[in-house]
């Protein structure tokens, strides 16, 4: 009963947040100075021409009418058409999302695959030189801008060695081999930094877990350190690690924009940057809304999971 | 839970769209020719040549997908295309074009007088962009004399009209096309439009039934790069066959290996202008403007900002226009003279001006350079970098600036200084009169009057013409026929050939 | 023959005063030894040293012989085989000593599977059997529960079952009842008393009364040293060390007159540093 | 060992602070002026060489150090000044009003610094201030959450209960009891956020959303160096190195502080 009620309240907050976020997004994007008509017309424009174009694009209707129109479309999963090119926004975002999803998904996967063993190692060997060295490496990884690393990767592997393409994207459906080749460098540069972030997280989580009583119990019944960590430690780290990964994923969809820029990848982040620079508000709103909602959704799911799944955490949650 | 489920539904829909979109991509099994990948910076804003303005659209489509009656070659000469010949009446009030009998659209429909009239009427009709409609102002009636002959009757003589017909203004579209031209272009050129992935690329393929010399490449991809350095690395790693125009000339050294790259340098129509806001009190004084002109070492600026690749110009005319005159020496670099002029104008103790530049490749660095040099003569330039849309809004639209740097890439844009409400706030009646006389007079008159007008701008120091953007095309040695100059709005694929 | 012989065992962390300072004791195959002392006296470190679970930076010297085998310096690989099988341990924190994300039955079964993979088929039965033996009334339900669904007493019973599942020869109990309320404490002590009958046990506690219930012999630890050891009744009757006397006095509130302050260890013994 | 992390962090920060402090009063050359021929390699008098326009790299690096510190200080201080009181308030109250700030900061959390900066730069233009504000706003949720959780922890202590019962006003409790107790955690967060802010500024400047040409921040220098990657890759080295040193300094400081306050932090986080 109380759990249900708490979830209910959380759900109400969630829906409220979605609505508030959508309104904020629409408000902010509509207050941006500059307009699409001017951008389309460029240094060729006359004021009359710009006004006529605005009229044609429906930009002269009242603010609230436009907001409601927009939300009505959004709830039917229809983001309308690009002011700039007249193309439907949905397929555009879908194709951009595909690129970002691969980039961020594979980058995160690689980062996790690197981070779990590396972080665990750094934790287990934290009093030894090699463990400290691993920690130091992750410190360096954290301090280097990912795009900077990307630039150097391009210089070395694409330009000097010529092993891999410097940028661009080829769809999996077109050529799986090319798809992979094009993603190696960007995924690597993303994973380099993400794995540093995650491995430090894993390290501290493993240290925490190894101080837990159940960890000692596991050791006392005959598990090796690695065995106990794998069998009992990771299970306990998993939820919080998943939370971190989930939230990172959502923010990275835009955060990867620097990588997209370096590697000329047509992802969501660069679509957003491009749309903002053209004041193509339909696309800006659609992308920002999806991203913000995604973060809210993940937040919500994490909270609810904590409430439902792990009563130990719920008690902690009650405290908060 | 309802709301969140609809959200999940949306995510699912996104995933499905991705999957379906990819699966249903048309598979073309036709034998393809040699593929050509071209790196470009400016993406189209739409695909309809008549309703869209901006340089991206004709760059890809003009002469490649759409053709015109007459075309502009890379030396600035007007040549026949769909019209095999044309003539003008002595009173210069009527043009008659004879269409090439072989000409036909990609759909197979003939390019006849009817199609031309329909295209032209559309270009000066309601739906056309104003800048295009205005170009048709001198034309009174358009008539199909017979199936192969079109006549334009003018209300006043116009020297600019024939030239304008070489651009989007004169593009001929297929009247039998039913799809929206903004998404599905239909022309008579050697290439057909295939797809446009926004923010990424436009793909063309050979028009198998082309009426003239067949296309030598297929498919042709125009790939767009927001970051010029990303374009360079793509070229260096072999993903591109050409860079249509190198916008970071400092990096030209990367392509110095003649075994792997050929470099083609020429001129464009892009005058990089240090614009003054004439509404500013200090800048309304010609002595201040002249002082600034003297204070900037333009050769040094080109050397450090543009890799020494731009040509110095003295007015709003590129060397490929018939009325070009070298005025680049009128204001030599002379800081002492500049200080003198400033003192005369009453600004001996200093002057602070805002220099608001757009975030285009030349903007911020030339801003820094100019600010550094103006500091020497006692002018404090507060440099501010504006995102392009903001620049258009605030500087171009609201005239909220003191000085700015921008490249005017439109061809034959001397008239920009005569336009009503131009963003410089420049107004000079004598100059305006010269322009009108030039358009209505004879061809010789035109050259004379425009020379005079250009000179007038220079003497008035209406702006500082920093340099002319060079055309730097990088290609692999396998590509022949690359043009040095880039002076039409088109990236003309028809001159290119594969060297075997 | 003694199953456990600890001789001159010293444990040091860094350059600090030794946490355990050359202690010695022995334990017969069915003996029970209580180790009593306040926190920080080194009693828990002693039991962890026997289990080989001290942190990596601990320096151990002296000798621990278990069943004739030297444990100090034993390779981890060998040690691991002993833990949970021949030697096991019951910890003091029943609330946290079980993995919260794994069902109790599985955690218990794991202990058997870990050392006796050959019994794989019969593990579930063994688990239910053990849960029943430690006094859990609905073994099947408890086996399928998560630790947080159990009461403190049930959890401690499950931990006892885990410690005993492989019939170890030596069981170390580290304050097994401290965190429980008095009533449950009593039940668990009775359970341990029964279940540990045929094994050697080291029973670590700060509570003299608790130790007295299960152990005939006691060693008193103070600042890492054993200050006296012997028969528990004899020591209670005639403590030789003032600290022991203090422990005894503070445990007998019933003998204190109503208007007198409660006795504490400090009344009998003052640590050297503070003197 | 623990002190080692702290000391290394402080040393790295020290280098940046010294660069910035000296840069305030003296740089080898005027960083905004062209004082040599372009793209000179490191040597004399231009110790780290000159950039593409011919300005002195060391002078620009020094001048960038102070902006880098300014960005860090302003954005972290701004986030803390807004976020900490909200977090403490939320931690000290019960009921839905206590949830409100947390939910609002959840919404804010949905707008990462980059997203905010893109929108903000479009709204008011890219500048050092835009970057600072965007980073600052994006950092607020971290402070709200942390301050809230830490306040809960502190509120459960007996002496706070006592203070509340004896009628001491809430604000006084917050200032006298809660704030000093949660200060260490906030210090660690501030240090970590500082590092993030420096990195974020570099990223924003690289995209052209941060500092303009008037401010030679390290991110800006990195962006300008892009054009010369092949002629003079060393130009991309100096600012990249400076960013790494500063970020690492603050990260290590954060870690060192965390280790120092370890027992208290463990129960709070």
Automatic annotation (TrEMBL), chain A:
<keyword id="KW-1003">Cell membrane</keyword>
<dbReference type="GO" id="GO:0071916">
    <property type="term" value="F:dipeptide transmembrane transporter activity"/>
</dbReference>
<dbReference type="InterPro" id="IPR045621">
    <property type="entry name" value="BPD_transp_1_N"/>
</dbReference>
<keyword id="KW-0812">Transmembrane</keyword>
<keyword id="KW-1133">Transmembrane helix</keyword>
<feature type="transmembrane region" description="Helical">
    <location>
        <begin position="179"/>
        <end position="198"/>
    </location>
</feature>
<comment type="similarity">
    <text>Belongs to the binding-protein-dependent transport system permease family.</text>
</comment>
<feature type="domain" description="ABC transmembrane type-1">
    <location>
        <begin position="97"/>
        <end position="302"/>
    </location>
</feature>
<feature type="transmembrane region" description="Helical">
    <location>
        <begin position="283"/>
        <end position="306"/>
    </location>
</feature>
<dbReference type="GO" id="GO:0005886">
    <property type="term" value="C:plasma membrane"/>
</dbReference>
<dbReference type="Pfam" id="PF19300">
    <property type="entry name" value="BPD_transp_1_N"/>
</dbReference>
<dbReference type="InterPro" id="IPR000515">
    <property type="entry name" value="MetI-like"/>
</dbReference>
Automatic annotation (TrEMBL), chain B:
<dbReference type="GO" id="GO:0015833">
    <property type="term" value="P:peptide transport"/>
</dbReference>
<protein>
    <submittedName>
        <fullName>Peptide/nickel transport system substrate-binding protein</fullName>
    </submittedName>
</protein>
<dbReference type="InterPro" id="IPR030678">
    <property type="entry name" value="Peptide/Ni-bd"/>
</dbReference>
<feature type="domain" description="Solute-binding protein family 5">
    <location>
        <begin position="78"/>
        <end position="407"/>
    </location>
</feature>
<keyword id="KW-0732">Signal</keyword>
<dbReference type="GO" id="GO:1904680">
    <property type="term" value="F:peptide transmembrane transporter activity"/>
</dbReference>
<dbReference type="InterPro" id="IPR000914">
    <property type="entry name" value="SBP_5_dom"/>
</dbReference>
<dbReference type="GO" id="GO:0042597">
    <property type="term" value="C:periplasmic space"/>
</dbReference>
<feature type="signal peptide">
    <location>
        <begin position="1"/>
        <end position="21"/>
    </location>
</feature>
<dbReference type="GO" id="GO:0043190">
    <property type="term" value="C:ATP-binding cassette (ABC) transporter complex"/>
</dbReference>
<dbReference type="InterPro" id="IPR039424">
    <property type="entry name" value="SBP_5"/>
</dbReference>
<dbReference type="Pfam" id="PF00496">
    <property type="entry name" value="SBP_bac_5"/>
</dbReference>
TrEMBL record, chain C:
<keyword id="KW-0813">Transport</keyword>
<dbReference type="InterPro" id="IPR050388">
    <property type="entry name" value="ABC_Ni/Peptide_Import"/>
</dbReference>
<keyword id="KW-0547">Nucleotide-binding</keyword>
<dbReference type="InterPro" id="IPR017871">
    <property type="entry name" value="ABC_transporter-like_CS"/>
</dbReference>
<dbReference type="InterPro" id="IPR003439">
    <property type="entry name" value="ABC_transporter-like_ATP-bd"/>
</dbReference>
<keyword id="KW-0472">Membrane</keyword>
<dbReference type="Pfam" id="PF00005">
    <property type="entry name" value="ABC_tran"/>
</dbReference>
<keyword id="KW-0067">ATP-binding</keyword>
<protein>
    <submittedName>
        <fullName>Oligopeptide/dipeptide transporter, C-terminal region</fullName>
    </submittedName>
</protein>
<comment type="similarity">
    <text>Belongs to the ABC transporter superfamily.</text>
</comment>
<keyword id="KW-1003">Cell membrane</keyword>
<feature type="domain" description="ABC transporter">
    <location>
        <begin position="4"/>
        <end position="248"/>
    </location>
</feature>
TrEMBL record, chain D:
<dbReference type="InterPro" id="IPR035906">
    <property type="entry name" value="MetI-like_sf"/>
</dbReference>
<feature type="transmembrane region" description="Helical">
    <location>
        <begin position="104"/>
        <end position="123"/>
    </location>
</feature>
<dbReference type="GO" id="GO:0005886">
    <property type="term" value="C:plasma membrane"/>
</dbReference>
<keyword id="KW-1003">Cell membrane</keyword>
<feature type="transmembrane region" description="Helical">
    <location>
        <begin position="7"/>
        <end position="29"/>
    </location>
</feature>
<dbReference type="GO" id="GO:0055085">
    <property type="term" value="P:transmembrane transport"/>
</dbReference>
<feature type="transmembrane region" description="Helical">
    <location>
        <begin position="129"/>
        <end position="147"/>
    </location>
</feature>
<feature type="domain" description="ABC transmembrane type-1">
    <location>
        <begin position="65"/>
        <end position="254"/>
    </location>
</feature>
<protein>
    <submittedName>
        <fullName>Peptide/nickel transport system permease protein</fullName>
    </submittedName>
</protein>
<comment type="similarity">
    <text>Belongs to the binding-protein-dependent transport system permease family.</text>
</comment>
<feature type="transmembrane region" description="Helical">
    <location>
        <begin position="228"/>
        <end position="253"/>
    </location>
</feature>
<dbReference type="InterPro" id="IPR050366">
    <property type="entry name" value="BP-dependent_transpt_permease"/>
</dbReference>
């Amino acid at each position: 009963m109380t759990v249900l009620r708490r979830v209910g309240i959380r759900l109400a907050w969630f829906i409220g947040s979605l609505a508030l976020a959508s309104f904020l997004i629409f408000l902010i994007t509509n207050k941006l100075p500059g307009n699409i008509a001017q951008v389309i017309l460029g240094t060729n424009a006359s004021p009359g021409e710009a006004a006529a174009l605005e009229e044609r694009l429906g930009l002269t209707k009242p603010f609230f009418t436009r907001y409601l129109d927009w939300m009505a479309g959004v709830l039917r999963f229809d983001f309308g058409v690009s002011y700039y090119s007249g193309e439907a926004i949905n397929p555009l975002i879908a194709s951009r999302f595909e690129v970002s999803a691969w980039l961020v998904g594979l980058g995160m996967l690689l980062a996790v695959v690197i981070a779990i063993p590396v972080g665990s190692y750094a934790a287990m060997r934290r009093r030894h030189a090699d463990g400290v060295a691993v920690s130091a490496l992750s410190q360096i990884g954290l301090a280097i801008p990912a795009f900077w690393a990307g630039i150097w990767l391009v210089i070395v592997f694409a330009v000097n060695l010529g092993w891999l393409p410097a940028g661009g994207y080829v769809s999996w459906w077109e050529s799986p081999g090319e798809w992979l080749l094009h993603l190696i460098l960007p995924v690597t540069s993303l994973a380099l930094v993400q794995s540093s972030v995650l491995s430090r997280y894993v390290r501290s989580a493993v240290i925490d877990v190894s101080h837990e009583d159940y960890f000692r119990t596991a050791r006392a019944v005959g598990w090796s350190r690695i065995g106990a960590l794998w069998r009992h430690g990771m299970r306990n780290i998993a939820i919080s690690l998943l939370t971190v990964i989930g939230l990172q994923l959502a923010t990275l969809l835009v955060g990867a924009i620097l990588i997209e820029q370096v590697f000329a990848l047509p992802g969501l982040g660069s679509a957003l940057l491009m749309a903002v620079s053209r004041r193509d508000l339909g696309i800006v709103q659609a992308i920002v809304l999806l991203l913000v909602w995604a973060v809210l959704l993940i937040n919500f799911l994490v909270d609810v999971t904590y409430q439902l799944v792990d009563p130990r955490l719920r008690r902690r949650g009650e405290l908060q | 839970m309802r709301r969140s489920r609809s959200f999940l539904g949306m995510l699912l829909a996104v995933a499905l769209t991705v999957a379906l979109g990819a699966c249903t991509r048309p598979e073309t099994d036709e034998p393809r020719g040699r593929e050509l990948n071209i790196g470009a910076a400016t993406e189209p804003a739409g695909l309809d040549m008549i309703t869209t303005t901006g340089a991206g659209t004709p760059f890809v489509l003009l002469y490649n997908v759409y053709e015109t009656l007459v075309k502009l070659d890379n030396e600035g000469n007007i040549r026949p295309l769909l019209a095999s010949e044309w003539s003008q009446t002595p009173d210069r009030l009527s043009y008659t074009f004879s269409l090439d009998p072989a000409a036909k659209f990609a759909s197979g429909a003939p390019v006849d007088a009817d199609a031309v009239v329909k295209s032209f009427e559309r270009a000066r009709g309601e739906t056309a962009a104003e800048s295009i409609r205005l170009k048709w102002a001198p034309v009174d009636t358009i008539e199909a004399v017979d199936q192969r002959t079109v006549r334009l009757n003018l209300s006043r003589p116009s020297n600019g009209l024939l030239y304008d017909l070489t651009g989007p203004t004169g593009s001929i579209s297929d009247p039998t096309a039913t799809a929206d031209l903004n998404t599905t272009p239909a022309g008579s050129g050697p290439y057909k439009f295939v797809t446009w992935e926004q923010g990424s690329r436009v793909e063309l393929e050979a028009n198998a039934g082309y009426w003239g010399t067949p296309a030598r490449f297929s498919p042709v991809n125009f790939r767009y790069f927001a970051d010029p350095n990303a374009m360079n690395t793509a070229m260096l790693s072999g993903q591109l066959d050409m860079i249509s125009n190198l916008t970071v000339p400092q990096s030209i050294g990367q392509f110095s290996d003649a075994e792997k790259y050929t470099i083609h340098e020429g001129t464009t129509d892009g005058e990089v202008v240090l614009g003054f806001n004439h509404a500013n009190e200090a800048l309304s004084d010609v002595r201040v403007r002249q002082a600034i002109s003297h204070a900037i070492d333009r050769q040094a600026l080109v050397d450090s900002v543009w890799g020494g690749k731009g040509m110095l110009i003295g007015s709003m005319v590129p060397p490929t226009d018939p009325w070009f005159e070298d005025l680049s020496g009128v204001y030599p670099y002379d800081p002492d003279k500049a200080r003198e002029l400033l003192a005369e104008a009453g600004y001996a103790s200093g002057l602070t001006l805002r220099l608001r530049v757009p975030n285009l490749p030349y903007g911020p660095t030339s801003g820094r350079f100019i600010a550094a040099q103006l500091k020497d003569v006692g002018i404090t330039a507060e440099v501010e970098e504006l995102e392009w849309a903001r620049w258009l809004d605030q500087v171009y639209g609201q005239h909220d600036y003191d000085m700015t740097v921008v490249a005017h890439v439109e061809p034959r844009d001397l008239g920009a200084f005569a336009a009503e409400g131009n963003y410089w706030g420049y107004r000079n009646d004598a100059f305006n009169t010269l322009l009108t006389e030039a358009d209505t007079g004879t061809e010789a008159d035109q050259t004379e009057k425009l020379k005079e007008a250009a000179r007038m701008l220079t003497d008035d120091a209406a702006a500082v013409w920093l340099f002319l953007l060079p055309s730097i095309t990088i290609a692999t040695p396998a590509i022949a026929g690359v043009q040095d100059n880039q002076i039409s709005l088109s990236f003309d694929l028809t001159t290119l050939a594969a060297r075997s | 023959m003694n199953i456990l012989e600890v001789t001159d065992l010293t444990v040091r962390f860094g350059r600090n005063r030794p946490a355990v300072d050359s202690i010695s004791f022995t334990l017969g195959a069915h003996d029970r030894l209580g180790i009593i002392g306040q926190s920080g006296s080194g009693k828990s470190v002693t039991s962890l040293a026997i289990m080989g679970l001290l942190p990596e930076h601990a320096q151990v010297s002296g000798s621990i012989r278990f069943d004739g085998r030297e444990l100090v310096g034993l390779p981890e690989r060998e040690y691991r085989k002993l833990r949970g099988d021949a030697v096991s341990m019951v910890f003091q924190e029943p609330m946290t000593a079980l993995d919260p994300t794994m069902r109790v039955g599985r955690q218990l079964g794991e202990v058997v599977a870990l050392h006796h993979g050959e019994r794989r088929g019969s593990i579930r039965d063994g688990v239910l059997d053990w849960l029943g033996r430690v006094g859990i009334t609905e073994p099947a339900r408890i086996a399928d529960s998560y630790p947080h669904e159990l009461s403190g007493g049930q959890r401690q019973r499950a931990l006892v079952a885990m410690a005993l599942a492989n019939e170890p020869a030596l069981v170390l109990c580290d304050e097994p009842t401290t965190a429980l309320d008095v009533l449950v404490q009593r039940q668990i002590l009775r359970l341990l008393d029964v279940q540990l009958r045929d094994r050697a046990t080291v029973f670590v506690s700060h509570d003299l009364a608790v130790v007295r219930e299960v152990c005939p012999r006691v060693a008193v630890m103070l600042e890492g040293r054993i200050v006296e050891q012997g028969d528990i009744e004899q020591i209670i009757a005639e403590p030789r060390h003032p600290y022991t006397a203090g422990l005894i006095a503070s445990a007998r509130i019933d003998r204190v007159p109503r208007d007198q302050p409660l006795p504490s260890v400090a009344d009998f013994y003052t640590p050297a540093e503070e003197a | 060992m623990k002190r080692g992390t702290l000391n290394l962090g402080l040393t790295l920060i020290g280098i940046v602070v010294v660069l910035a402090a000296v840069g305030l009063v003296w740089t080898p050359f005027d960083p905004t002026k062209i004082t040599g021929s372009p793209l000179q390699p490191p040597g004399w008098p231009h110790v780290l060489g000159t950039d593409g326009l011919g300005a002195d790299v060391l002078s620009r690096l020094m001048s960038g150090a102070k902006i880098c510190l300014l960005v860090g200080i302003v954005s972290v201080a701004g986030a803390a000044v807004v976020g900490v009181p909200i977090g403490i308030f939320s931690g000290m109250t019960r009921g839905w009003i206590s949830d409100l700030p947390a939910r609002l900061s959840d919404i804010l959390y949905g707008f990462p610094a980059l997203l905010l900066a893109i929108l903000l730069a479009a709204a008011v233009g890219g500048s050092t201030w835009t970057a600072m504000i965007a980073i600052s706003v994006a950092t607020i949720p971290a402070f709200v959450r942390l301050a809230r959780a830490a306040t809960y922890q502190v509120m459960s202590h007996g002496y706070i209960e006592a203070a509340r019962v004896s009628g001491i006003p809430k604000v006084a409790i917050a200032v006298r009891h809660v704030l000093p107790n949660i200060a260490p955690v906030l210090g660690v967060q501030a240090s970590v956020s500082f590092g993030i802010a420096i990195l974020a500024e570099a990223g924003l400047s690289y995209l052209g959303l941060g500092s303009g040409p008037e401010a030679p921040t390290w991110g800006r220098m990195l962006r300008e160096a892009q054009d010369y990657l092949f002629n003079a890759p060393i130009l991309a080295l100096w600012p990249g190195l400076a960013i790494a040193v500063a970020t690492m300094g603050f990260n290590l400081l954060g870690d060192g502080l965390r280790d120092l306050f370890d027992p208290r932090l463990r129960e709070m986080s």
